[in-house]
Structures are given as structure tokens and as C-alpha cells.
């Protein structure tokens, strides 16, 4: 099977043995969404073709292609939002199916499925998967099946504003978590106040680890805000565990420790407060492995 994980920063793909989750080979290319939706889609097709060629070279049969995208996806596999990639008018699934039977899924549900089958979620009947990177999304997994909701939209954890009115000044507040705690937000917040500009969230984390008080405050506040929202998610769903993936979600100790502390502080029920909060076991490969597995599940294909 071919798994393709399209993110805001990179597209990762691989040949996957779906009965074990083993990745036979892998390639990563930059997404560069600023070039427009068609250019990114052309790169996706080229990557898929390269894996088909590689599969033929090693005599590995390909039963299908699974594609995880950083957007909402309806039950028919149509991309229905354009926050990162405006693919609403591109028949992604049908065009890719000209290469091999293809399934399009939201990236967070694909990654959650990967963790449910082969990673940190294997021992849980009900867990919440949260991914933190270029964006922030979540997914409830029940008995190994990511829950999509009625329209495929049950993943929006951090894109909608938390609207309120300040009781001190009367001003309206429309804070959006992704604009405060996701990777690009860390970069933007740091560059507004730091003497040296950075381009990646990893550089902000490195600066904090190196003793930068500015970077440390940004990391601490972002992780605390994320924990606030994940704590609310736990209160709402009461999962057995929370599993966190994405490049920033699996980041260094300062971000992780403050996030876990904040999550527990915002969990209301005492018997729930110490639930397991674990990093994704498959790491950066959760998405592509889960996308390949989604192709098998949704198309009822035979694992190969």
C-alpha cells in the first residue's frame, strides 16, 4: 500500500506493509502551499507515481493509495475546507484512483488510525488523538475506528475563535488557539519581540532550551493554552488516554511538560485527571502509515 501524508510544511509518503505497519521506503518533499493548490497536487501525483515505480522494482503489489490531507474531508472523500490547501474543486480521490484505488482522509484521522492499529493507541478502546504542528486538530477513536462525525468535521479543536467580552474593559476577544499555540504562531510571536528572527518552531524551542527568557515565555504560554483546550476535550469525551502527535506535539521537555501540567489542571473530574497522556509511538510516520491503513479499511482492500 502507498500512504501519503500531506501537511502544511511537507508531504511524506511511503510504501507500507499494512498488516505490520512497516514502512519499506519513504520520501519527503516540501509542500510550499503558497505556490497554489494545483502545484501541490501535481507534487502529490508525482510522489505517488514514484512509489508505484518503486513497488514494481521490488515486486511489491500495491492494493491502493491512502491520502491524508490537512483539511476537513466528507464521508465520500471530498476535501471540504481550504485552510491550508484549497482542494475543494479538485477531485483528488478520483484522479488518484486512476493510478490505484485511492482514499482521501483528513490527516488527523489517518494518524489516529495509525496509532490505533500499530502505535500508542493499541491498548485503548477509547482515546483522544491530538496533533500539533502547522495546525492543531483532534480525533476521538473508538474501538480502533476514528470518529468522523456526521459530515467529516469532528476534528476542529483549535481553528474556531473563543469569543468572549473582557469584563474589565468591555472589549471583544476572538482568540484562536492555532494563532497562538501552533508552530507558525510560535515563530510569529517570537519574531515580534526577539532580536534575531527565526523561521521554524524548532528554533524557538532551541532558543528556550538555550536560556532565552523571551522564547521560554512564548513556549510556556502556548503549551498552557493548548493544555486548556485539551483539558476541555477530556472533560467532554472522557477518553481512556490522550495521544499526541505532530512535530510540535512531540517536541522537547519544556513544551511537553507544561502542556501535560496544564491539561491536568483543566480536567474537572478527579478520577480522570491522571489519565495517560502519551506521545505518538509512530512519530512522524503516523500519518502515512494511517493513510495506507485507511485505504484498506474504507475500500475493503486486501492488505498487501
Characterization of the model:
This protein has 304 residues and is an alpha/beta fold. It folds into two domains: 132 residues, 2-Layer Sandwich (Nucleotidyltransferase, domain 5); 160 residues, Nucleotidyltransferase, domain 5, CATH 3.30.420.40. It has nine helices and twelve strands. The strands form three sheets. The chain has a five-stranded mixed β-sheet. Strands 8-7-6-11-12 form a five-stranded mixed β-sheet, with helices on both faces. A two-stranded antiparallel sheet has the order 9-10. A hairpin with a 6-residue loop joins strand 9 and strand 10. It is globular, with a radius of gyration of 19 Å.
The number of distinct β-strands equals 12
* Beta-strand content estimate: 15-25%
- Note the run of SSEs as H and E: EEEHEHEHEEEEEHHHHEHEH
CATH topology title of the largest domain: Nucleotidyltransferase, domain 5
Strand order, biggest sheet?
3-2-1-4-5
Task: Kindly name the structural category.
Answer: alpha/beta
Largest sheet: 5 strands, mixed
| Alpha plus pi helix count | 9
Shape: globular
Distance between the termini: 6 Å
Query: Which percent range fits the helix content?
Result: 25-40%
At CATH level 2, the architecture of the largest domain is 2-Layer Sandwich
Query: CATH homologous superfamily of the largest domain?
Result: ATPase, nucleotide binding domain
List unreliable stretches of 5+ residues: none
Evaluate the radius of gyration: 19 Å
The count of domains is: 2
CATH class of the largest domain: Alpha Beta
- Mean pLDDT metric: 91
Amino acid at each position: 500500500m502507498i500512504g501519503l501524508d500531506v501537511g502544511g510544511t511537507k508531504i511524506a509518503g511511503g510504501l507500507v506493509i499494512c498488516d505490520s505497519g512497516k514502512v519499506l521506503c519513504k520520501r519527503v518533499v516540501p509542500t510550499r502551499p503558497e505556490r497554489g493548490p494545483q502545484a501541490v497536487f501535481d507534487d502529490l501525483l508525482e510522489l505517488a507515481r514514484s512509489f508505484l515505480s518503486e513497488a514494481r522494482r521490488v515486486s511489491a503489489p500495491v492494493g491502493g493509495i491512502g491520502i491524508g490531507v490537512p483539511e476537513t474531508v466528507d464521508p465520500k472523500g471530498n476535501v471540504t475546507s481550504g485552510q491550508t490547501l484549497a482542494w475543494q474543486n479538485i477531485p483528488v480521490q478520483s484522479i488518484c484512483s486512476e493510478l490505484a484505488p485511492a482514499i482521501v482522509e483528513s490527516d488527523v484521522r489517518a494518524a489516529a488510525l495509525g496509532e490505533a492499529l500499530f502505535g500508542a493507541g493499541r491498548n485503548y478502546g477509547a482515546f483522544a488523538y491530538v496533533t500539533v504542528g502547522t495546525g492543531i486538530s483532534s480525533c476521538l477513536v473508538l474501538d480502533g475506528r476514528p470518529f468522523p462525525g456526521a459530515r467529516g468535521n469532528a476534528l476542529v479543536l483549535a481553528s474556531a475563535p473563543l469569543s468572549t467580552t473582557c469584563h474589565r474593559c468591555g472589549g471583544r476577544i476572538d482568540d484562536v488557539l492555532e494563532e497562538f499555540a501552533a508552530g507558525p504562531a510560535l515563530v510569529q510571536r517570537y519574531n515580534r519581540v526577539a532580536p534575531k528572527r527565526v523561521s521554524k518552531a524548532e528554533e524557538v524551542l532551541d532558543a528556550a532550551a538555550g536560556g532565552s527568557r523571551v522564547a521560554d515565555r512564548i513556549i510556556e504560554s502556548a503549551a498552557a493554552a493548548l493544555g486548556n483546550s485539551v483539558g476541555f476535550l477530556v472533560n467532554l469525551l472522557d477518553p481512556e488516554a490522550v495521544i499526541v502527535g505532530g512535530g510540535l506535539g512531540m517536541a522537547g521537555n519544556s513544551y511537553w511538560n507544561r502542556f501535560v501540567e496544564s491539561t491536568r489542571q483543566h480536567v474537572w473530574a478527579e478520577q480522570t485527571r491522571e489519565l495517560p497522556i502519551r506521545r505518538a509511538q509512530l512519530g512522524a510516520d503516523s500519518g502515512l502509515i494511517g493513510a495506507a491503513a485507511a485505504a484498506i479499511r474504507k475500500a475493503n482492500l486486501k492488505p498487501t
